[in-house]
UniProtKB/TrEMBL annotation:
Residues 336-349 have a biased composition (Basic and acidic residues). Keywords: ATP-binding, Nucleotide-binding. Residues 336-368 are annotated as: Disordered. The lineage of its organism: Eukaryota, Fungi, Dikarya, Ascomycota, Pezizomycotina. InterPro entries: AAA+_ATPase (IPR003593), ABC_transporter-like_ATP-bd (IPR003439), Molybdenum_import_ModC (IPR050334), P-loop_NTPase (IPR027417). One of its GO terms (cellular component) is mitochondrion. This is ABC transporter-like protein. Residues 63-308 form the ABC transporter domain. GO terms for molecular function: ATP binding; ATP hydrolysis activity. Pfam families: ABC_tran.
């Protein structure tokens, strides 16, 4: 997409805000003085298959992370790029190459206080723990999707208690056990704080995605580091658990046990206890750092000046420079969150725009074409022994109370599935995908047939189901082979498993190439910023899935789930971890395919008819009438604008689920989101 030069962007160099009347320790944990960072040596030659870029990161950075200070300092890195946020936390741990090498030091870790406390903490990788969003679910065991739902416990299905200690070997030695042993009361205190106590003796593979994130935080805390770096800790957590975890982290940070550094997305709520912020752009340049209020005020000034400069323009529809787009998007998120006032919202917390960024009007009057049922659940209840995980309620069905979950999904319907962590959302989806073993016995029909045969009606096979379904989730991501090329990743939508040969025809090949062209900017790590697309797709056969950034991997799996236009598209937190602009592009592509593209203009994001549509070359059209969509998300920004039907599952024992229907896209009215989460 061509963009004209930036009209205004003042944050081209780092602005630092210093506080007075503060007392800092003489020995900071991390000290960086005019340091610039690289993933590999800037003078080194690329290996034959190395496609990753190597730009300078955080050039001329000056930062001190105090060991103790009065008042306390609690830092966070704020950036629209997941790659940049992760890289910043990595440099605090001593990772990435620093130039000059002496620019980064760890004075406090070399002090007598640390030596007497624990000599092993002299090393940054031991003293500074990292919990990242891209830690694979494989860490919890399970070699296939059904493993987490099976009732039989194998020897390798270690419990949460074992996971927290790190003793997950089949035959650990006595010295290893002695080194890792943690008092049970200490572990119970941590899991109680993280609301995981009832899972203490259960297989860790049965934890939900949000519970798994809390377990990783707990394991890091039990290592007793000096600093805990949490990379996007609130992704995948429901609003209530997010607040509770924030309160727990605050107590730990105040006691410096350990010190906490967070990475946050622009749409995340910045915890009140965070005192200092580093703001870095997508290019890896730190544009402001210092006290939170001053950094936010600076961003507000940049945002306001940008809006004023655009307001006085006489020509509307002018496309903006990428840096200006970034600033406006960050400003918009901060405004919506209440960190500073903005005029883009009405009194009810809703956007003043009438079209969502994925092309839907605020009140959508487009008639829906609803077809036959393709998923029918009539009284579903899933239990593991005495523990019920779904359907432990009586539901009002046509005015009559009935046991279990009753739910019908029809062609043409677009569902949002919401609920607290552990409420059964992923379990519900596993019945639709037939990954759950109890699908055989539960009253579930897929495409009008049960898994087991009945008189005159054969049972539906797993291959019949998979051939009509596209699925993207954290579980799929964790188990997906990293040695497939980007092209083969998309082609695997036409195979029974990712590693078997896909059955491609000319139409399938056209769809693959259309998607690769459409998302070349996001998927091609060899591409230079602002370089026009060449149309050459050789890179897609050379770049491996595992070489992509976390955001790009999520995009590739999203495309894999949607590229065939299957009867059911399941997006279980599929947009979590994507960079903001990439997520918006995927949301538009989901509903409209190549028919529309978003232009970032002075009037805001504007979906317009694409050049491909104008030329009659559309290959991938977006969601069709024969398709149903099931979407799970804890973030309002990640819910597609086409979603109309929704269900909110309650925590087990808290009553029946609530069903509803929206009259337009969630993005444009905050009231719709509040309606889902009201208790």
């Amino acid at each position: 997409m061509r963009r004209t030069p930036a009209l205004f962007f003042a944050a081209s160099r780092c602005v630092r805000f210093y506080t007075s009347r503060r007392k800092l320790s003489l020995d900071p944990i991390v000290r960086i003085t005019n340091g610039t960072f690289y993933r590999r040596h800037p003078a080194s030659k690329k290996e034959e298959h190395d496609t990753s870029p190597n730009p300078p990161l955080f050039p001329n950075l000056n930062l001190e992370l105090p060991s103790f200070s009065t008042p306390s300092q609690h830092w966070a890195i704020l950036s629209p790029s997941s790659t940049i946020r992760t890289a910043f936390l990595q440099i605090l741990r001593g990772e990435l190459l620093c130039f000059p090498p002496t620019a980064r030091s760890f004075p406090y870790l070399l002090s007598p206080a640390i030596t007497s406390k624990n000599p092993k903490l002299r090393y940054p990788e031991r003293a500074i723990e990292y919990v990242g969003f891209d830690v694979e679910r494989k860490a919890f065991g399970g070699a296939y999707l059904s493993a987490r739902y099976e009732s039989r416990v194998e020897e390798t299905d270690f419990t949460l208690a074992q996971y927290l200690t790190g003793i997950i070997e089949m035959n650990p030695g006595e010295d290893f056990i002695k080194e890792r042993a943690i008092k049970k009361e200490v572990m119970l205190k941590v899991v109680r704080e993280l609301e995981l106590e009832r899972f203490f003796d259960r297989p860790v593979s049965t934890l939900s995605n949000g519970q798994g994130r809390r377990a990783r935080i707990g394991k890091a805390l039990l290592a007793k580091p000096e600093v805990l770096c949490l990379d996007a800790p609130f992704i995948g957590l429901d609003p209530f658990v997010s607040q509770h975890i924030s309160d727990v982290l605050h107590r730990l940070a105040e006691a410096s046990a350990p010190r906490i550094v967070l990475s946050l997305r622009p749409q995340d709520v910045i915890p009140e206890w965070i005192t200092h912020i580093v703001y870095a752009g997508e290019d890896g340049t730190v544009q402001a750092l210092g006290q939170k209020d001053e950094v936010l005020q600076y961003l507000k000034q940049q945002y306001d000046e940008t809006e004023r400069s655009l307001t006085v323009r006489s020509d509307e529809g002018h496309e903006l420079d990428p840096k200006l787009v970034e600033l406006r998007e960050v400003g918009k998120h901060l405004s919506e969150r209440g960190d500073f006032e903005a005029s883009s919202k009405d009194d009810h917390g809703s956007s003043s725009t009438s079209i969502s960024r994925d092309g839907f009007e605020k009140i959508d009057k487009t008639p829906a074409t609803i077809g036959e049922p393709i998923v029918e659940m009539e009284g579903v209840r899933i239990k593991y022994g005495p523990h019920s995980v779904l359907g432990d309620w009586q539901q009002d069905v046509g005015g009559e109370p009935k046991d279990g979950l009753w739910m019908t999904i029809r062609r043409g319907e677009h569902w949002g599935i919401f609920g607290a962590n552990g409420s059964g959302k992923t379990t519900l989806l596993s019945l639709v995908t037939s990954d759950h073993p109890q699908t055989y016995s539960a009253p579930v029909k897929l495409f009008g047939r049960s898994r087991l045969p009945s008189p005159g009606v054969p049972g539906i096979t797993i291959f019949d189901i998979q051939s009509q379904m596209g699925h993207s989730s954290p579980e799929v991501h964790a188990l997906f082979p990293k040695n497939l090329s980007v092209r083969r990743t998309l082609e695997s939508a036409w195979s029974d498993t990712p590693i078997t040969k896909p059955r491609l025809d000319s139409e399938a090949s056209r769809r693959v190439e259309a998607c690769l062209r459409w998302f070349a900017t996001e998927l091609n790590p060899q591409r230079i910023d602002n370089q026009p697309a060449s149309g050459d797709l050789h890179w897609a056969s050379d770049v491996f899935f595992g070489e992509l950034s976390f955001s790009a991997q999520r995009i590739a799996l999203f495309l894999r789930a949607t590229i065939r236009s299957p009867s059911i598209v399941i997006l279980d937190e599929a947009f979590s971890g994507m960079d903001d602009l990439a997520r918006d592009k995927c949301l538009l592509f989901l509903s409209h395919g190549e028919n529309m593209e978003v232009h970032y203009t002075d009037a805001g994001p504007k979906p317009v008819e694409s050049e491909v549509k104008k030329s009659g070359g559309v290959v991938v059209p977006g969601l069709q009438e024969h398709q149903a969509l099931l979407c799970v998300s804890h973030s309002r920004q990640e819910v597609p604008g086409c979603v109309r039907e929704w269900v909110c599952l309650k925590e087990q024992g808290m009553g029946q689920p609530r069903f509803g229907r929206w009259d337009g896209p969630l993005e444009l009215t905050a009231r719709r989101w509040s309606e889902v989460w009201r208790r």
